[in-house]
Queue: 3 jobs
Job 1
Amino acid sequence: MSDFFSSGWSIFIAAATLISLAACLALLLFASRRAPMAADNSTGHVFDEDLVEMNNPLPRWWVVLFVLTVLFAFGYVWAFPGLGAMAGQLGWTSRGELAADQARSAAAVGQVFAVYAAVPAEKLAGDERAMAIGQRLFIQNCSACHGSDARGSKGFPNLTDDDWLHGGSPEKIEETITLGRTGVMPPMAAAVGSHDDVREVAQYVMSLSGSAHDAIAASGGRRKFAVCAACHGADGKGNTAIGAPNLTDKVWLHGWGEAAIVDIVEHGKINVMPPQGGRLPAAQIHVLASYVWSLSHSRPTASR
Amino acid sequence: MTRASVPIVAVAAGSGSLYISEAKIQPRAVSGWFATWRWLLVGLTQALFYGLPWLQWNGRQSVLFDLAARRFYVFGMVLHPQDVIYLAGLLILSAYGLFLFTAVAGRLWCGYACPQTVYTEMFLWVEHRFEGDRQARIRLDAAPWSMNKLARRGGKQTVWLAIGLWTGFTFVAYFTPARVLAGEVAALAVGPWEAFWILFYGLATYGNAGYMREQVCKYMCPYARFQSAMFDRDTLVISYDEKRGEPRGSRPRGVDPATIGRGDCIDCTLCVQVCPTGIDIRKGLQYECIGCAACIDVCDSVMDKMQSPRGLIRYATQNGMANGWSRREMWLRIARPRVLGYAGVLAVMAVAFVASLAMRAPLAADVVRDRGALARLVEGGAVENVYRMQLMNATEETLRVRVDVEGLRGATLVGGAAVTLAPAEARWVPLAVQLPTEAAQSLGAGAHAMQFRVARLGEGTGADAVLFERREKSTFVIPR
């Protein structure tokens, strides 16, 4: 027990518990032997001039029950941790009980998921029950960032479109959920050049997706884009192997417009998807990944 | 009005101990008008209790509390944990019902319908069959062990245990379907908690009805003590007519007691022998009296034999007894503020309870805003808010539900929301509400009130008809 500075408190609690229990027994013994009654069966106490306290005896079974509860208490503190820091003979701990509960529930839940473990995601996506389970898993574990409808928000990818930073195959999604991802965009201001150069690159990036842009600036940025091409590719279509986003679609994870792009190029960005492998069993991740995959393929019947 | 003084009677005077071993009470069997009523109520309550788990409804058990699935089936109703208010309402109704008839006629509940009384009555009946009536049982208690005693005791114990275990089984059958549970018991494959509750409830019934009996009423029951708070001097209680009965003493049959200077009471002590709590009603109203009226039944039969009028012991009010009122005069006092107050509250509660159940929505909905992101901007500058709605089907039919957004000009539900709910299903449905740029700009930044309309749609030809709708308030956030 690290809650206390010394073992004194533990001893105090143990002593207080045992003395209290013993005192209960002593009181019962004392009261059953004592015969303090006056001849009229009153206790001899008179209150407010004429209010007499009569002896109205308790039934014996009540006393027996009382004694049994005290004996039970002795047995209890012997078996369970009740006397200060003593662990009790059964070695019970609340942590151990939690672990046992979790193991039991994991075994019960495991049976449900074991059925789906060998089923490929493409097939699971058509299984209404599996998708209902997947949706609940998603709401409990993923919706805080990606939103209840999985369509994300600024900084948190939309999972229902066909744009995938790290690949959209069921296997890749499972890998992303299990191991997590860290997307790194290094600050590129020094490599690109001056602030105006960065603005020109931004205009060029906007032109890639056919968004409204300044054509003159964009043509200037075209040459400077060479430093970006290492990751995003010469055509700006990105590279899912290293998580480099496709710049030619109209998906803007960290904000749209020149200012947002300039900010990213100058200051970089690190975006983290935390690994779930330690939190969720692989069988659950498989169902979850199938659900996520289904969001951008066949629409799940569960929510639409 | 003079206040009657209650003579103080010491219990077990002279023992001096603070504890005593309570004497065993062997009540004599009784028959009569009130005993018949009690047996009717025993039959009614037990037919309900033992019978309901076997009654099927909509292809399932009529009354079933499915704790694991958190669904509570009561005939045609499916209750969710969110409906716990009805349990509170039921308890309030029960409490005011108890208050009302206790104020009118004392401990009617204790005397006729309380499980402690009902099971004790059943166990006493079994005891009577095996061991005979009061005198025979007292003799048997005193007799040394013999084959005869062993057989009688053994038979009684067997039947008692069987009733107790059947009661425990029935109790658990309200939580695990009776037919399933019966199979489990037959296969000796009962779950640990089911086994615990069958044995615990069964043995508690056996112990309370077989052995504890009046001790439960005297020392354990909280109602026993607080019911006296509902009594007043106009409450009908079981009363001994002291003016008529005293001085008590025996007399030959057919002799007018007045001519020999005696009252109507022949001091046969049958009223004491039949009393399940072992009191002498002739000493006046006592806290042990559970109002079973056994003494009335037996005294009436004695008065019939003695050719005296019935009612030496009868339901009467303290005022009525003191002033010599007729039964009609006593009943006229029923319209007093206490009774009217209880009746009024009970009536209001009952109407509210029934109306609320009748108007209970077939469909419950709760909306929760996504907390991770207040709002998001999507392509074209439109603003989106994401919500999660829990839809609960409170019926046993499949429900077709449509969700719309209202109260926010231009707002639409992305993808629409048509949901099909299986019977008794509860499900989370994600909803995204989109507001076009212009509408968002004209409203300005901040949280704006809006609501979701949840409509239950008709089936088949009336597929677009709205059978039921409800609205859930929420807010829509437009970022700066």
Job 2
Amino acid sequence: MIEWSGLGKRFGRRVLFAGLDGMLQPGKPLVVCGRNGSGKTTLLRILAGLSRPDAGTVVRTPAGLRISYASPDVDLYAELTGRENLDFLGSITGTSTAGITDLLARAGLTKASDRPVGQYSSGMRQRLKLAASVFCRPDVLLLDEPTLALDEDGISFVETILADHIATGGCVAIATNDRTEVERWADARLDLG
Amino acid sequence: MSKTGLKIALFVWMEAVIFGAFTFLPPVPGFRVPALAKIMVFHVPNAMSATVISLAAAFYAIRFLFRRNLLDDVKSAAGASIALLFWILTTVTGMVFAQVQWGQAWNWDPKQSAIFMLLLIYLAYFAIRAAFSDAQKRATAAAAWMVFAALTIPLLTYVLPNAPGMMSLHPKQVVFSVGGMGPQYRMIFWGATAGFMGIAVWMFRLHVRIDEMKLSGELAGLSGGL
Amino acid sequence: MADDPQSIDARTWFRAAAAVLVKEARVEGRSRLALGATVLFSVCALTAVAYTIGETHLDASVQAALLWVVLLFAAMSGLARPFVREEEMQTADYLRLYARPSAVLTGKLLFNAGVMLVIEVVTAPLFFIVMPSGMVRPDVGLLTAVLALGGLGLASTSTFVAAMIAQASAAGSRGALFFVVAFPALAPLLMASTHATFAAMAPVLSPPGYAANSMVVIASYDAIVIAAGYLLFGSVWSET
């Protein structure tokens, strides 16, 4: 679970948001919506522990919470193959690499798994990112624009991921411009304008 | 005493020190130009003031790394600029001395090399500050550099120049040894030390006040009121 | 599977550090030119020096200094890459999310140490071949030791400085910034390494205790820099 209060962030002179309070709970997906530039990505980054807020606090319980983050502005290694990327993430998190083949199959990436990610299409890359985000069995899943570049199959992959994760008691926050996603998944909603 | 009163007192004090240095101090035999010895009451107090402000800058840098409060970064950066100023003064007075005493302003002896590197370290500090636009990242990188440099500087300025086999032209052990300085020198010397230290601290506090105001102006938009 | 959480942690740490090292090597190996460029750079730097000096005989002390200048330039051209590339390719955040900072630093430090080793293995012998010999009954063992420890110092400081400046906004001038910041930090090491190299090239010509003193300085430099690097890396690496 993640709780935040009084969160504020600015870039230079521009204030992105201020005085945000909220909470992310297991089994209750939060959807963050807003126009481009409204701070959706920044908020998710703050919750992930990648960015520091200018004001306010974030409390993660328990302290060693495992958080995953998938976003257009974080990429996997283009020179490594899909399998090698997941292998690498497994090694640095201490996760067993036994489930990689399965996961790649579910993501529809079996044929591409031994090709460098640099050769993937944008849809394939997105699917790999999503696979990577659930691979280490995180407690919290933070997805920024998860359906970007995805076709129908890709979108149903997202849905199975979300369903599995929620069913096992994980927390989810999704940042998106896509209003239809909002209706489908939102248990709670945060509008950043 | 009011702030203005202190300011004037400091001014008068420094005037007295400078006047005394030039007229009151006797020339010292043993130097190539005996009157040259007087530069010591400028060179060494500058170095001492620079050291004190450098330590303050390093202290605030460490505090920033722990507490991530941008005010600490402001103080660290202010300290760095004042320290740099006084280190430059130290270098220049040292060069004047070297030119008169040995006919060569710069000779790459260990002490001079060390201070040259020190200046480069501070210049690198400001280069780092200039290269970051995000305030927290800038402060973090700058503070980390300051601490990193602070850990390796002693090696550079003390161990290396004083190592056996290292010949340095720099006069040794004048200030704190018995019989090192005559009574008039001692008086003017410590007077100059107090004066320069006072100026350094004053400049530091002014610098910090200005930067703090700039910073709170920028932060004002964040807490609640929009 | 061991039950003790502490030992699992240590094993994960080693696995993580090793994984980072392997990943660096793989990525570098599959990038076009990459490490080859750095080695070529050092050969060109060496050539620039040797060619312009030509037949002129130089003292061993001058040659020692030139060797370390060439090694310095080679380090500056290539050792920032592990950190700068992560930022440029936007892959750094995965490391921040999933790996312990000390493991990341270890992997990248070992990688850079390896790169430095390759640079030295290519450059040093070449240097002594093409420069008119200033050596007088050289102490090859000492020479190897200086290159090893001095190279480690070069790699360590470079790695840590690269970590510090990798997130700088002025992307175009990161290269210059790297050199500007690394150089003053490397100065004591360069000095001591040059002295020790001179002592190794011509033991009879150098003052007694010269070599031992310099090696002590180099060793303590390495220890201080590596310790300081590990202490400070965490703060520099992640924002929180």
Job 3
Amino acid sequence: MATGTKQGGGAGTNLDAARAELDDAPPFLSWRAIYLIVLGALAVEILLGAALTLALS
Amino acid sequence: MSALDWAVLFGTLAAIVAYGIWKTRGPSSMTDYVHGGYRDRWLTIGLGVMATQASAITFLSMPGQAYEDGMRFVQFYFGLPIAMVILSVAFIPRFYRLRVLTAYEYLEGRFDLKTRQLAALLFLLQRGLSAGITIYAPAIVLSKVLGWPLNLTCVAIGALVILYTVAGGTRAVSQTQKQQMVVMLGGMVVAFVVIVHKLPADLSFRHAVSLAGTLGKMNVVDFSPALGNRYTFWSGLTGGGFLAMAYFGTDQSQVQRYLSARSVTESRLGLLFNGLLKVPMQFLILFVGVMVFVFYQFNAPPLFFNEAELARVARTSRAPEMQALEVEHRLAFAKKRVEVLRLAAALDAGDAPTITDARSRVRAAAAATETVREKTRALIAAAVPRPEIHDGDYVFLSFVMANLPRGLIGLLLAVILCAAMSSTASELTALGGCTVVDFYRRSFRQDATDAHYLRVAKIATGVWGMLAVAFAGFASLVDNLIQAVNILGSLFYGTILGIFLAAFFFRRLRATPVFVAAIVSELLVVGLWLATRIGFLWFNVIGCGAVLLLSSLLNASDFGRNSTQTTEPSP
């Protein structure tokens, strides 16, 4: 237990299950798919940036 | 400024602050003050982390950076979406499971008290100094608008932000950041539309971008591997990624934002929202700067954008030299404008050889105007004491004040002040909260009431605010504000991130090897910064790597064998 942590943190997974803030269900698809969407968007942005640089510089 | 501008400026700010006060009325607790409790939805978190990162510097300095250096700064953000994914997977669940108030609390459970307080101390050092720069940036704006002395304006802004922050804490900050972010993004979109509208009617948008490319401003992605080159694809992806991971994962001003989410899911979605929007948002802000640059190819820019420095030179015996430079600048601009118009006509005609010839003529004419600006800098440096020879931070503000219509000037100033309020307020609550949770409550007084800690946290916030105002006095010494903030962060973040990665992923590492490795790594990074010309983003990688490597070596040699914790702390 981290000394000085906020009071009320219970021990063990039973109490964890009762803590609403520990909910980590994905809102749609799966977390892996959501992460891929974010990284895919980055890849598209980099490709567009490289194309702009190549075309205009 | 017109009465309409003042009305827009104060109306916007007053409405946001009043909304924050109304939403956060009622009793508060230490948890509320430090991270706002587990209440917020993902959109509030996403906009909150973006608003915390987007300080006034972002809106003042970035367009100026693009004006001088082109789009390449956007590469700095390429690592951010990757960092958001890693934080979502590895950091958020751990922080939630332990219900920590600050990120550094986690380190005591995993290692020991000295490692926790070392990380907290490094945070306080770098964030305290950075807060000075984030107060200085809006002070530039108001001192220019109101004609007040810059130091007095720093004190006035610091006092206002301290009052606003101490009164509301993190809860008020997170409630108002949504509105502030909407004003910021909306303001920049409006500015972009107005700037494009102000370009010559016969210049198409495509040709405006092409002109910017001719003059080297559309350098979005650079794959060259040079270590000394500050902004490349590689430094952005790795150094920028490490910096983003350290900033969002271990800087309390950000950790407190997403720990206010009502669940791990909401917290993750908020960070991923930031990961999706950040690169396009920074692209837009930089592109505004590039369009300002194109605007000034057709309309005469000032000789030097920081006109206060020119006024200082005008009061010296070197004033005639400055007048001569102004004449030289006007002539050089007139010649360049002729070449720019010729290029625009060639682009319209689509004749390739003429375009190539016109491009080289424009580049030569641009080099001539740049030479005059160099001479101006040299004159300022020689003529006045403590000269400010870089004017990039004044480019956008100068453009706004001289060229935007009534009402919009007030809106753009509101954007800058909203950004200042949101980021500085987050920084000050984080500094105050960390001081109390990681030092005062942990090492000096462990048995006081929640109300006592809340009171001390507010006092600590006020003290940090006053220190930040004092640090702001030195901010004028840096060349470029946004670079200064990022250099400062990069000097410390690598080490802090190394400590956290050691805690999360290297279960066999003991406390004392990590503690010693962190101190040695920090000294190494500062030494390299002073002695070499390595691009600053690499310090994040070097600091982090040095902590992991050194602590592994020390650990293997049985150094600090008596260290206690070796496993993940239980909740």
